UniProtKB/TrEMBL annotation:
Keywords assigned by UniProt, alphabetized: Hydrolase, Iron, Metal-binding, Protein biosynthesis
Free-text comment on the cofactor: Binds 1 Fe(2+) ion.
The organism's place on the tree of life at top rank: Bacteria
GO biological process: translation
Function: Removes the formyl group from the N-terminal Met of newly synthesized proteins. Requires at least a dipeptide for an efficient rate of reaction. N-terminal L-methionine is a prerequisite for activity but the enzyme has broad specificity at other positions.
Binding residues annotated for Fe cation, in chain numbering: 89, 131, 135
Protein name: Peptide deformylase
Amino acid sequence: MSAPYEIRVIGDPVLRRRAEEITDVDGRIARLVDDMIDTMYEAPGVGLAAPQVGVEKRLFVYDIGEGPQAIVNPVISESDGEWAFEEGCLSVPGLSWEIVRPNAVHLTGYDLDGNEVSFEADEYLGRVFQHELDHLDGVLLIERLDEDTRKEAMRTLRERQLAAEEAAAQAGLGRGLASRLGGLRR
């Protein structure tokens, strides 16, 4: 089975915009959640935010081994401590960095039935929540890096884009094949 959605990658403008609140959880949102879960599993990943599939809504799905869940309109109201941990992102494929984030967070939001949900999440689950919420606010993982590391990451991504474009040209497929890392030449 192929994933219902293509995951948007760095350079796609949708990843830089703040997602809109969801005012009504209807059948379209439920189908979106199902498709996002399928896409997340196929990637594979442990979390996926709606903007990563081109939908500018405040929604994310996750599964850290306890079954898939969706949170609508999530908000982190409290955080505590600090924890450095290696973190990657489906929208910045193939790269990961040690990122310092709060160790524990209090997150509220809504489930697909419109019920308020509340979590005291620490360590890994707390990190997943923070990472996905960043996507809803238009923040990419690469922006959490110090300036020198961010420059090196962008250089690596540009080199990968050029290599993909060269391989596509040699195969006679044109630039379209390499567009998944488009927008990096600025």
